Amino acid sequence: MKIMVLGGDGYCGWPTSLHLSDGGHEVVIVDSFVRRQIDHELGVQSLTPVADLRERLRAWREVGGGHIDLEVGDLLDWEFLSGAVRRHRPDAVVHFAEQRSAPYSMIGRRHAVYTQHNNVLGTLNLLFALREFAPDCHLVKLGTMGEYGTPNIDIEEGFIEIEHNGRRDRLPFPKQPGSFYHLSKVHDSHNVDFACRIWGLGATDLNQGIVYGTVTPQTERDPRLVNRFDYDEVWGTVLNRFCIQAAIGHPMTVYGTGGQTRGFLDIRDTVRCVELAILNPAEAGEFRVFNQFTEEFNLAELAGMVGEAAGELGISTRVEHTPNPRVEAEDHYYNARHTRLLDIGLEPHYLNESLLDSLLNIALLHRDRVDPAAVNPRVDWRTGQRPAPQNGDLSPAEPRAGRTGARTGP
Ligand code: NAD
Ligand code: USQ
Q1: Has 144 been annotated as catalytic?
Q2: Which of 59, 216, 310, 341 has its Cα between 20 and 30 A from that of 131?
Q3: Residue 331: phi, psi to the nearest 5?
């Protein structure tokens, strides 16, 4: 199949592109590199040294992985995006290309506006490009489990059967997201659902949980193929953060009581879930939702698991319950259905099998690259950004939108 991977330079997009290319698909990466630019503005960097995308693509060819095409440009640039879709006429588009940090979206007005502008309008441009130039293309859109929030009932996969005043219907599951970023995903879901209903597009919304790990069988083939591993307070997801904290002797920063429960999955399962969705496409006019995670943990449990695994390596750890910078329920009911990907063949990796090899060992290998100033939380949901410590500036220039994308090849 011909597959466009939007956001193919990112944490999920890069290993997914390699996995699909390895599976014999023709892959085209689309990326504006805005994420690398924001890292630069925030003064943070991946724990793992990430090569330039063209160097990554060269390395993939040199290890026999084959050719991956590249389109450099912004989804907000209609001429660029529609031109790329028209030229390639993909069978499937995987859409990762969004600002994906909840803390970033809560720094202040500009960051909230940037996040929703980039995410919602980028997706809207994509829907129009598909309608005009590739109406039969299957859209695989990355959503998030955080769209649902933490309701006091079981979470279904996208839709719920409701009986109200004696009548029944199947309706979108209620959404109670917890940040302007998570809200952007809800807005996207509504727009994609609507486009499927009125234009007959086929789409899968993958409501992904929190991803951990960095290694896939493809990224291991050459050091230049290494994936990013974020640990700073804006981009680092919780488990990756606990592992680098353990590795550098920093207390694990559990926000509040640690009773917050979330769905988690290994990056190796992310790439497989996306492939399974592509190989089992939505029908024309169908908008379907898969909850994409494999295990649920609360944060106190997670810190305990990291502490135990670190102990096996002779590393002692400490947990610090920091005042919660976020506004979120800390003790709540959580039970989310996640059977649809298992039904089409997902064989999950489990955390207790990967904690040492794909997390702690990577954190230890690169611990000299950790900037301790980037570790503690500074973005507060109520007040926005707090004053910077010694270094690390959280006042980026207004992120630019709508830059002209040039067509390039590797
Ligand atoms: P990332 O920041 O590492 O990658 C996103 C990529 O998209 C970057 O390379 C960035 O340059 C590109 N991009 C962003 N806006 C763009 C635009 N307007 N035009 C072109 N390129 C653009 O993020 P990630 O962790 O790989 O997340 C990918 C997707 O998966 C996001 O949509 C995110 O919401 C979703 N997701 C991620 C996680 C997680 O734990 N990382 C969990 C659930 C869902
Ligand atoms: N947390 C801590 N300590 C930390 C960091 C986070 O206790 O040092 C807590 C947070 O308060 C939250 C939980 O851990 O309760 C998860 O935080 P996170 O930063 O790992 O995840 P989140 O902000 O939800 O965002 C990440 C990705 C996002 C994706 C989402 C999936 O950045 O792109 O959409 O996970 S989900 O959480 O299922 O919505």
Answers
A1: yes
A2: 341
A3: -130, 110
Please tell me the number of the ligand nearest to residue 72's CA.
1
Tell me, what's the pLDDT at 403?
Answer: 36
Domain boundaries, the chain: 2-386
CATH assignment of 2-386, given 3.90.550.10, 2.30.42.10, 3.40.50.720, 3.30.465.10? 3.40.50.720
* Segments of the chain with pLDDT less than 50: 390-410
Active-site pick, 181, 231, 255, 334? 181
Spatial distance between the Cα atoms of 101 and 82, rounded to a whole number of angstroms: 27
Q: In degrees rounded to 5, what are phi and psi of residue 66?
A: 100, 180
Burial state string for 368-392 with b = 16 or more CB within 10 A and e = fewer than 16: eebeebbbbbbbbbeeebeeeeeeb
Q: CA distances (Å), 7 to each of 10, 36, 78, 260, 269, in order? A: 6, 11, 16, 29, 18
Q: Which atom of ligand 1 is nearest to the CA of 212?
A: 40
Cβ contacts of residue 190 below 8 Å, gap of 6+?
172
